[in-house]
Design brief:
The protein has 263 residues and is of the alpha+beta class. It folds into three domains: 8-129, no CATH class; 137-231, Orthogonal Bundle (Arc Repressor Mutant, subunit A), CATH 1.10.10; 232-263, no CATH class. Helices cover 29% and strands 29% of the residues. It has helices spanning 11-18, 22-30, 75-84, 121-131, 166-179, 188-194, 202-205, 233-244; strands at 8-10, 37-49, 60-63, 66-72, 86-89, 91-92, 99-103, 110-113, 117-120, 146-148, 154-157, 160-163, 186-187, 216-218, 223-226, 248-252, 258-262. Strands 1, 2, 3, 4, 6, 7 and 9 form a seven-stranded antiparallel beta sheet that branches. Strands 10-11-12 form a three-stranded antiparallel beta sheet, with no helix packed on it. A three-stranded antiparallel beta sheet has the order 13-15-14.
Length: 263
């Protein structure tokens, strides 16, 4: 019998699924591109509206709900959690503008730790729809579904077109050139310097272009390479032979055809 689908995921699981560092999840959240939540059980709360409030008046109380399940966190709480490892939370992100959702004043604040942070299935799927497919480990884009202009300012992935700025494109060109050599891994800071970028991290340079994660692999130690599936056919063939432990040799047959054989 198939197991039911999960309604939410821990942020570490999402980072693994997308094959990105956990710090990228945090950066997306602080940039308000990805909403992180915390799971609560039987938490007394109050919700209301600021609309119609006059100067000197407080908000209009509308309801006293009992919260259960994932509750979206405000960016100020997330910043404190990422900085200090935990935060005392008394308010959640409200669903509608000019409204609020607070922990009731007669209830102690919640202490939320980094390990408590989750992403709902709905939010994960929304992020993937809006920012393109996110490759999981071992699932780079197929070469047949990939095309790029010579300068990498235009890239097609799975029939979707993506435009990259001059410095973003310069980094991709550098990775492409390195990928055609025996040393495909490049230091991230060196790439930024060579591309004349003033940012400190590749994530900052590409933060508005999540599709770059389908093009570039990270080793988690500050080094990057172009996905092997995107290299020239010759380089992919050499990589395959090396991976399975064979030496590849190219010869020219009597008919003038190039033949690759193993030994």
């Amino acid at each position: 019998m198939p197991l039911p689908q999960k309604r939410w995921f821990r942020i570490g699981d999402v980072a693994k699924h997308w094959a990105i560092p956990l710090s990228d999840i945090e950066d997306y959240a602080l940039d308000e591109m990805l909403q992180l939540s915390v799971f609560v059980v039987d938490l007394p709360a109050e919700m209301g509206s600021w609309e119609g409030s006059r100067v000197g008046e407080g908000p209009a109380l509308q309801d006293l709900p009992i919260l259960n399940g994932p509750q979206p966190l405000q960016r100020s709480s997330l910043l404190e959690i990422f900085r200090d490892g935990q935060a005392e939370v008394r308010a959640f992100r409200a669903a509608q503008p000019n409204t609020y959702l607070h922990v009731r004043s007669d209830v102690r604040e919640m202490v939320v730790r980094r390990d408590d942070l989750i992403v709902t299935r709905e939010e994960r799927d929304r992020f993937e729809r809006e920012h393109g497919k996110v490759s999981g480990p071992g699932a780079p884009p197929a070469a047949a579904d990939f095309w790029h202009s010579e300068d990498f300012t235009s890239v097609r992935l799975d029939s979707e077109w993506h435009r990259f700025g001059p410095k973003q494109a310069a980094v991709l060109c550098l990775l492409k050139a390195a990928g055609e050599t025996d040393n495909p891994w490049c230091d991230g800071k060196r790439l930024l310097d060579d591309a004349d970028s003033s940012t400190m991290r590749l994530l900052d340079l590409f933060k508005r272009k999540p599709a770059w994660r389908q093009l570039v692999q990270a080793d988690g130690k500050g080094r990057y390479r172009l996905h092997a599936a995107l290299l020239s056919p010759e380089r992919r063939r050499i990589r395959l032979f090396r991976k399975v432990g064979f030496a590849a040799t190219k010869v020219v047959s009597a008919t003038g055809e190039e033949v690759i054989y193993n030994r």
